[in-house]
Write a structure and sequence with these properties.
Blueprint (H helix, E strand, L loop, with lengths): L28 E11 L5 E6 L2 E3 L3 E5 L6 H8 L7 E6 L2 E3 L3 H4 L3 E4 L11 H10 L9 H11 L15 H12 L6 E5 L7 H16 L3 E6 L2 H7 L2 E6 L2 E7 H9 L6 E5 L3 H10 L3 E6 L2 E5 L18 H10 L6 E5 L3 H9 L8
Parallel strand pairs: 4-9, 4-10, 7-8, 8-9
Antiparallel strand pairs: 1-2, 1-3, 1-5, 5-6, 10-11, 12-14, 12-15, 13-14
Helix pairs in contact: 3-4, 5-6, 8-11
InterPro entries: AAA+_ATPase, ABC_transporter-like_ATP-bd, ABC_transporter-like_CS, P-loop_NTPase
Keywords: ATP-binding, Nucleotide-binding, Transport
Protein name: ABC transporter ATP-binding protein
Length: 354
């Protein structure tokens, strides 16, 4: 996997047109936009100067509250609507100019699949396949069968699509996107409206597809979804890019440069635990009820053990507590969530309309 874009000192990644440290070289980007902008009537910008850099091979989450401009961006990327300003490249080619060359390499699922309810799942796929001028009709049956198999719909292939659950319809839409091998999959809110089981199935499928080397760009307003499935993310609010980078780097932006997370120790011996942790270099130590929390030292910081040694790992910290007679009932670290990132960078709660 190419090197992820690194956040800058303010925690925000450099724009796509900068040579930014850690930013994937242009050839390694599945999607790249510069200043991409869309104004609908009324003058308000639905998308405002967007600089995106999606590394090839990533599972890239495009995250933001409803109405922040995700679908509008995707529609511009796919050449479905014209940008008001700015540029977009998909698989290295300018869009929409190179649409005919690029789009056969891209599987897209935007705003739910358009299915005929009176046709079976299999016949819906045959119809999609027949609409592809590059698809050989002689091998259609095999292609459709493989795609159904891939999304776990082989057994239900003969059922009318109107009898499918929402999750099955989404999977059928994905199967349509997978009839041909694709370099890039673009999925707009693929789990929207699904029950938890349906969501899990789609996420598992996304992971499988990415494991085969396909870049997956998926939009979502669900923070935990992005955290669970994505390697990288861009965070949008009100049409603007707030930040982008690896999911781990984004978490680190709100944890400070040390980015190690907070340690939590649950113990009846809170005062002793706090003292030992401070001696070991843990800062910001706080006691709340039977919990002692603190910020872990940087990995390269000197960390003195009680015997003058230098415990470096969490396990060593735990051992030192036990050695000092602290009865440890719980021990662990917490990383910042993407929700923390969003709130810290925008000053807003996540559940706002864009
Ligand atoms: N065809 C249109 N004409 C006018 N305004 C539009 C149009 N499509 C979208 N908008 C507006 O542009 C903004 C961005 O909408 P968009 O659908 O891109 O957001 P989104 O992040 O995909 O949200 P959602 O998840 O709710 O679809 C919203 O304020 C929306 O009302």
């Amino acid at each position: 996997m190419p090197a992820p874009p690194a956040p800058g000192p303010d925690g925000v990644c450099p724009p796509a047109d900068g040579p930014g440290p850690g930013r994937p070289p242009a050839g390694d980007r599945a999607i790249e936009t510069r200043g991409l902008t869309k104004a609908y009537g009324g003058g308000r910008l639905a998308v405002d100067g967007l600089d995106l850099a999606v590394p090839r091979g990533s599972i890239f989450g495009f995250l933001g509250p409803n109405g922040c401009g995700k679908t509008t961006t995707i529609r511009m990327l796919m050449g479905l609507i014209q940008a008001t300003a700015g540029h977009a490249r998909v698989l290295g080619q300018p869009m929409p100019a190179a649409g005919r060359r690029v789009l056969p390499e891209v599987g897209a699922l935007i705003e739910g699949p358009a299915l005929y309810g009176f046709l079976s799942g299999r016949d819906n796929l045959r119809r999609f396949d027949a609409a592809d001028p590059g698809a050989d009709p002689r091998t259609r049956g095999a292609r459709v069968g493989r795609a159904l198999e891939r999304v776990g719909l082989a057994a239900a292939a003969g059922k009318k699509a109107r009898a499918y659950s929402l999750g099955m319809k989404q999977r059928l839409g994905l199967a349509a996107a997978l009839l041909q091998p694709r370099e890039l999959l673009v999925l707009d809110e693929p789990t929207n409206g699904l029950d938890p089981q349906g969501m899990r199935e789609i996420r598992a499928l996304v992971r499988e597809l990415a494991a085969d080397g396909t870049t997956v760009f998926l939009s979502s307003h669900l923070l935990d979804e992005i955290e669970q499935v994505c390697t990288h993310a861009a965070v949008m609010a009100r049409g603007r890019l707030i930040t982008q980078g690896t999911v781990a780097d984004l978490s680190a932006t709100v944890l400070g440069p040390r980015g190690n997370g907070r340690l939590t120790v649950t113990t009846p011996d809170t005062a002793d635990a706090a003292r030992v942790l401070k001696e070991l270099g843990v800062s910001g130590v706080e006691i709340t009820d039977d919990r002692v929390t603190g910020e872990l030292p940087a990995p390269d910081a000197p960390m003195g053990g009680p015997d003058g040694g230098a415990p470096r790992e969490l396990a060593d910290l735990n051992a030192a507590l036990v050695h000092a007679g602290v009865r440890v009932r719980g021990f662990g670290t917490e990383r910042a969530s993407l929700e923390d990132v969003f709130v810290s960078l925008t000053g807003e709660g996540f559940d706002v309309a864009g």
